[in-house]
């Protein structure tokens, strides 16, 4: 990504995903075979990794200088890692918290809605990742182009909302029935509620990506960390009473706070550019 060889990233994701699906289809034929899935995922990722490391001329020799370079790079990326960690708190832990208060069946319904929203969210993150190098470059060289790119990103978010998220919210019953079966239709309502949260995530990304691109990743860390705390509090308040519906409402509330927070920070920082 740093070299802006984006077609290679696309090939990497595509080939790895196809290999994962193919291996799961071939070697997992029943619930008893699920233990093979992690090994199969690893096996699917290794070929692409090895080919790309070879193309980059990477040698498996570690010197003292290499360790020093690694520490320098990791220290610079540490804030980004913490942002991802905080985001996972309110994107993953709600399933486990729900299991503390509700029966396994309801946890299963909510997991379906969570997996669907998580898949869409990953697609959004890929989009933001693709935008980041260009935004970083334009911020350094062309502030007008930087602002123009953010506006285009927001327009893309609007198009994505109309084309993908609106149909997902309206017709998710058909998606659930086709993919996991009609017995999981109770997942439809939480999925509809969480789709609203996905819209908020989508409009959050242009601002948070812009702040990271201009070196203000600590602002994004404060936002994600604060929202992670709010998410935990809301989940422990709402889940015992409302179950998976409470979890879905918590998700929307947190994403509303996250969007308003990041817009205010972006406006404050942007006024100085």
Brief synopsis:
The chain is an all-alpha fold and 273 residues long.
Task: Walk me through what this model shows.
With 273 residues, the protein is mainly α. The protein is built from seven helices and no strands. It has helices at 6-27, 37-55, 64-101, 104-141, 143-179, 188-213, 217-270. Helix 3 (64-101) runs antiparallel to helix 4 (104-141).
Which whole number gives the mean pLDDT? 88
Q: Which spans have pLDDT < 50 for at least 5 consecutive residues?
A: none
Q: What share of residues are in beta strands?
A: under 5%
How does the helix and strand content classify structurally? Answer: mainly alpha
Tally of alpha and pi helices: 7
Strand segment count: 0
In N-to-C order, the SSE pattern is HHHHHHH
Distance between the termini: 26 Å
The largest sheet, given as strand count, sense and whether it forms a barrel, is:
none
- Note the overall shape: globular
Helix content: over 70%
Compute the CA-based radius of gyration.
Answer: 21 Å
């Amino acid at each position: 990504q740093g070299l802006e060889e984006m077609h290679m990233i696309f090939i990497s994701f595509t080939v790895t995903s196809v290999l994962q699906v193919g291996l799961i289809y071939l070697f997992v034929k029943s619930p008893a075979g699920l233990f093979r899935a992690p090994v199969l995922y690893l096996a699917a990722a290794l070929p692409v990794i090895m080919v790309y490391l070879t193309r980059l001329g990477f040698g498996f020799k570690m010197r003292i200088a290499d360790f020093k370079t690694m520490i320098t790079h990791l220290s610079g990326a540490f804030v980004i890692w913490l942002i991802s960690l905080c985001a996972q708190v309110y994107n993953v832990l709600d399933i486990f918290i729900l299991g503390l208060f509700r029966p396994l069946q309801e946890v299963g319904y909510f997991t379906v809605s969570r997996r669907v929203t998580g898949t869409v969210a990953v697609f959004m993150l890929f989009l933001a990742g693709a935008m980041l190098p260009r935004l970083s470059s334009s911020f350094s060289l062309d502030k007008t182009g930087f602002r123009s790119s953010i506006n285009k990103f927001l327009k893309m978010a609007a198009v994505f909302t109309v084309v993908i998220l609106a149909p997902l919210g309206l017709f998710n019953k058909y998606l659930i029935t086709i993919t996991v079966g009609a017995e999981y239709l109770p997942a439809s309502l939480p999925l509809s509620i969480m789709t609203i949260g996905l819209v908020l995530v989508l409009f959050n990304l242009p601002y948070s990506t812009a702040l990271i691109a201009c070196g203000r990743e600590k602002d994004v860390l404060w936002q994600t960390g604060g929202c992670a705390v709010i998410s935990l509090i809301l989940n422990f308040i709402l889940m015992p009473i409302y179950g998976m519906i409470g979890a879905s409402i918590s998700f929307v509330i947190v994403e509303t706070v996250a969007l308003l927070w990041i817009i205010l920070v972006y406006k404050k920082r942007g006024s100085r550019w």
